[in-house]
Amino acid sequence: NDYYTYGGITRPAAVEYIPDTYIKNIRFTPQLTCGRWSAETEVFVCNVSEREMEISLEVKLAGCCMEKTVTVGAGCEERLVFAMEFDEVQAWSNAQPALYFLQAVLSVNGEPTDDLIERVGFRTVTLDGSKIMVNGEAVYLKGFNRHEDYASVGCAIPLQLMAQDMELMQEAGANALRTCHYPNDERFLDLCDERGILVWEENHARGLSEENMRNPHFKQQCGDCIREMITAHYNHPSIYIWGILNECASDTEYGRECYSEQYELIKSLDPYRPRSSASCRFKTDICLGYPEVVSYNIYPKWYHDIPVEDYLDELYQWIQNESEGTGKPFLITEIG
């Protein structure tokens, strides 16, 4: 196999003591309109006590400061939305990965009781026909599929080895990577934010037949992974696409049902990033209409027993027809 599935605690863990009323999560969504940046910041506040609490919440970002006061019911969660505009901020890009600290401070009776700080970037991801656009400019993606697996440490990878991976990829000229086939360590995504590397992150399911996908735990586990991945990593500007189900049964009706459900789940959690899934079902895939970006893995003489030259000629003609027919970007996600 190309990687192992380990048990145990393999990533950093921490215990934090928080009050009964606390900041659960922050979602930062930037927008670029006529050359001017704005953003919607959603802050989710939970109250697990048995009485309602009047709280004030202050949000600070790039010289902009806003505050709201609300009452959060006993045992309830409140979503506070801050619409912010910015006069002078630098966009996040491959060439200039500018990052800003977004801070939310929660106060009860005038006293700060909890805070949460996220590091964010101002960037948009859109599609223009067959082009993927970052901040309105087309990008040409060159990169690697990365596994979190070392002979010496398994997948409990120290930061030094993550930085080494990054150095090797950038020395080779990469500007993008794919986290095959699972969400990556938060620290590595932080490095991608800092280095301007565009990230395709995907859930943990690969190479599954229809029989595997009919396992009674399959849908629940995939859904849990997608929810946790997007909730935890939504604010990373480096992530430009969400992926699912590498090389699964996208050529069967039951597989099509599973793909459809997972694509819809992603859209409900993040309507702003495009979606995709790497396929190896040459000419038989019936799920290519769902994602915004069509993706394909190429392994001549392994997946398809025809001469390499004939295979590549036929494949590229098919890619061109698919791209022109669907008007979607087409990515080669693996080649070997």
Molecular structure report:
The structure is a single chain. Helix content is 24%, strand content 34%. With 336 residues, the protein is of the alpha/beta class. The model has no long low-confidence stretch (mean pLDDT 93). Strand 17, helix 6 and strand 18 (330-335) form a beta-alpha-beta unit.
Helix content: 10-25%
Average of pLDDT: 93
Measured distance between first and last alpha carbons: 15 Å
Net shape:
globular
Number of strands: 18
CA gyration radius, whole angstroms: 22 Å
Share in β-strands = 25-35%
The largest beta-sheet arranges its strands as 11-12-13-14-15
How would you characterize the largest beta sheet?
5 strands, parallel
The DSSP helix count reads 6
For this entry, what is the oligomeric state of its chains?
single chain
Which class of secondary structure composition applies to the elements? Answer: alpha/beta
Q: Which blocks of ≥5 consecutive residues have pLDDT under 50?
A: none
Q: What is the N-to-C order of secondary-structure elements (H for helix, E for strand)?
A: EEEEEEEEEEEHEHEHHEHEEEHE
Short description:
24% of the residues lie in helices and 34% in strands.
Search tags:
single chain, 336 residues, alpha/beta, five-stranded parallel β-sheet, four-stranded antiparallel β-sheet, globular
Give the SSE layout.
Elements: E1 21-33, E2 36-47, E3 53-61, E4 64-72, E5 76-86, E6 100-108, E7 111-120, E8 125-128, E9 131-134, E10 137-138, E11 143-145, H1 159-171, E12 176-179, H2 186-195, E13 198-202, H3 210-213, H4 218-233, E14 239-243, H5 253-269, E15 275-276, E16 278-279, E17 294-298, H6 308-326, E18 330-335
Parallel strand pairs: 11-12, 12-13, 13-14, 14-15, 16-17, 17-18
Antiparallel strand pairs: 1-2, 2-5, 3-4, 3-6, 6-7, 8-9, 9-10
